[in-house]
Amino acid sequence: AGMAELNLNVYVDGVLHSNSPLLLLVGKTPVLMVDDDQGAGSNMEDFYTGIWDEQDIRYGVWDHSIQGSPPADFLAAFPIIVWMCEWAFPTLDDDDRESLQQYLDSGGNLYISGQDLGWDLNENPGTDDNISFFENYLHASWGGDHSGSMAVNGVFGDPIGHDLSFDIYQPGYPAGSQYPDHFYPDSEAVKIFEYDNGRTMGLRYSGDYKLVYTGVGLETFGSYMFSDPSLDINDVQRTVLNRILSYLNFIGHEAYTDTEDTTSNFDVSITITGDVADLSSVNLHYKNDNLSEFVEVAMADSGQGQYAATIPAPMNSSNIEYYIKIATTYYEWTNPVGAPTNSFLFYAGLDTISPVVLSVNSFDNRIDRSGLEQVISFVSDNIGVDSVHLNWSTNIDPSIIHRMPMISNGVSWVGDIVYENLPGNTTITYFVEAMDISHNNMGYSQPLSFTIVNSALLTAWEYQDVSGWDTGDGWGIQYINADNGYGMNDSPGGFYENNANNNLTLIEPYDLSDYNSAYLQFYSGALMVLNEDFGYIELSGNGVDWTTVSSTTGFNSMDLTTLDVSDYITDGVYIRFRMTSDSANAHQGWFIDDITLLVDTTIFLSSSSEISSLPAKFHIAQNYPNPFNPFTTIRYELPQKSEVQITIYDLLGRKVTTLVTGAQDAGYKSVQWDATDI
Fold first, then answer.
1. Helices and strands (H and E) in the chain: how many
2. Higher-pLDDT residue of 320, 541
């Protein structure tokens, strides 16, 4: 059984006129591929069938573009269906959904995938019937037609996604036509793959039927624009497809794990789902360290697709391998897939294997003197885990070790590090220990640590994240220069308006109650009309009454500003940047970047509210803004009195203008260039 090639020869007056090879499905196969790319002219289905050909797995192919929707009674003959939609729509028409619903209602096993499969059902146009199928049969609610990421990670510990990371790309299409779906698994489904921004790419479900659904096809896994299935099938695709077939395997069985019991028989039970009308034999194959070949045992029929057989007790310590094999009139199938090369394996005998602490989350350094950090760990053992403990200590007295039990949530183990009133520069070191249920074998993680520091960056503007800030009348993220990267500007991409009064305001105050002293530092630069337009730095203890502590006007390069906010330790401090302008003229406004909190330290401030110091070395910074029109500022630093010349050249090396020439005192300097006439 399987796909067979039929050559159709057409003769006219005894002369061969044409020869057309046709692929026909003969008999039944364990796997049916539904090629539902609407005849897009690609051969993406060959990524799937190429893997099956490598592994000698029997399969059939239904070409939707030629044959239309497969009838429900036809689908019922196939225990596993792989429905590949690639990037084609409409996807899953009314007849398709009706056939699939009947197949799944009868306990079928389905892997369905495709870029824009979810979008087509939910938004194109997203009828009630389409959405109902998506939610009730694919066990998902719609997220969107672009995940915002092309990097995918498998979920730790999942039988399909574990230990996999890869990029995705739909072969044959340009970058602008990549629309990987994302969605939300319902309460009965389990996430198996996620994009690196946390959105879901794949799920699995096991209940009345088994389902695997991915928001892009297998052909995208680890591929690129010109990937060809005849040349470019990769190991990620092989691994994922094999794991999916194992998950969807219609020979249901819970495999044995290691045990210390060597004197009891091992009862092997299975449940076969789907069409078993042509079933001719069901056999268990096993061997141990004393058997060089597999022993075949017929499994007893218990009715309703259930079968059982026994592996005799080894009586001594031994590795035991086994697999189940069924035969029908048309094909043979095994669990696990690929047996006997790939078989179930467990060890019976004295357990000497320690638990493995597979992963423990880490923490960034933090400025908080008190806090709670939740430690999450994944632990495995060949027989079972008895208990897991979290241990932590500080460098103040490393001999004091806090040891507390971690709680299992069914997937991971969770425990808390709770600390109070620790001084700056305290390092907290922690590790996880696990004990198994047999002979108290112990496993340990590598130690991790984080430090209570005296400074912390309080903004994430470099990542274009403005959360926590009220951006007023148009404050937003703008690229400033190579030194500063992205920061805030009151009128990003343009000039500020006349008669502006535009505030950038911290929504919640910085809590300073744990500290004895506190300073705020940030970079500030301006392109404003001198003494007509101003930027005011204002502080408040309640968010209502504001005090101006510093101001700026004119053209100023990006320099570090430091404010003493120790007076706000009791209440916490709000900060506001207020930009005002008069009724005439405008420029590119005020630039703010990298607000940093410094605590429990001493800083000597000059009258200009800047750190009083000289540059450590000669330095010229990237001009800002860049690009510019027509003004830009060049900042430079002189550690000592020096002769300075700053000259502008064009791309051909021709001199355009000289901005600075002559002796200058040490310090932080800047010069503006007006390129209006260039």
1. 7, 47
2. 320
User: Which neighbouring-strand residues pair with 59?
Assistant: 31
What is the distance between the alpha carbons of residues 23 and 7, in angstroms, rounded to a whole number? 9
- Phi/psi at 534 (5° precision): -135, 155
Q: Which residue has the tokens 């799937």?
A: 48
For residue 426, the surrounding DSSP H or E stretch is strand 426-436
Rounded distance, CA 474 to CA 584, Å? 19
- Residue 498 structure tokens: 């006349």
Alpha carbon 197 to its chain's center:
5
Helix (H) or strand (E) holding 408: strand 407-408
Region of residue 389 (left: phi > 0; alpha: psi -120 to 50; beta: else): beta
- CA distances 209 to 19, 66, 71, 184, 291, Å, are 43, 28, 19, 19, 38
What does the pLDDT read at residue 569?
A: 85
Measured between alpha carbons, how far is residue 494 from residues 476, 490, 527, 533, 542 in Å? 11, 9, 12, 16, 33
Predicted local distance difference test score (pLDDT) of residue 604: 54
The per-residue pLDDT for range 277-289, each reduced to its tens digit, is 789 999 999 999 9
644, two tokens: 């300075």
Cis before 229? omega within 30: no
CA neighbor of 37 nearest in space, from 74, 75, 91: 91
> Cα separations (Å) of 17 from 8, 14, 23, 96, 170?
11, 9, 20, 37, 39
Angle of CA points 388, 391, 393, to nearest 5°: 175
Q: What is the CB neighbour count within 10 angstroms for residue 162? A: 14
Q: Determine the 3-state secondary structure of 51 from DSSP.
A: helix
Of the candidates 421, 596, 406, 408, the residue with the CA atom closest to the CA atom of residue 518: 596
Question: Residue 14 burial by CB count (10 A; 0-12/13-18/19+): exposed, middle or buried?
Answer: exposed
Q: Is the distance from CB of 524 to CB of 592 less than 8 angstroms? A: yes
Residue 354: φ, ψ to 5°? -80, 155
DSSP 91-138: -S-HHHHHHHHHHHHTT-EEEEE-TTHHHHHHHSS--HHHHHHHHHTS
| Helix, coil or strand: residue 66 | helix
Q: Could you tell me whether strands 448-452 and 426-436 are parallel, antiparallel, or unpaired per DSSP bridges? A: antiparallel
Q: Which residue has the higher pLDDT, 14 or 528?
A: 528
Instruction: Assess contact for 318 and 228: CB atoms under 8 A.
Output: no
Are residues 95 and 68 in contact, defined by beta-carbon separation less than 8 angstroms?
Answer: yes
Tokens 């020439």 found at: 661
pLDDT tens-place string over residues 110-145: 999 999 899 999 998 889 999 999 999 999 999 999
Report yes or no: 163 and 154 within 8 Å, Cβ to Cβ: yes
* Residue 101, pLDDT score: 98
Q: In this structure, are residues 352 and 383 in contact, taking their beta carbons and an 8 Å threshold?
A: no
Helix (H, G, I), strand (E, B) or coil at 601: coil
For residue 28, the number of C-alpha atoms closer than 13 Å in the C-beta half-sphere is 23
| Cβ pair 403, 387 in contact under 8 A | no
Grouping H, G, I as helix, E, B as strand and the rest as coil, residue 232 is: coil
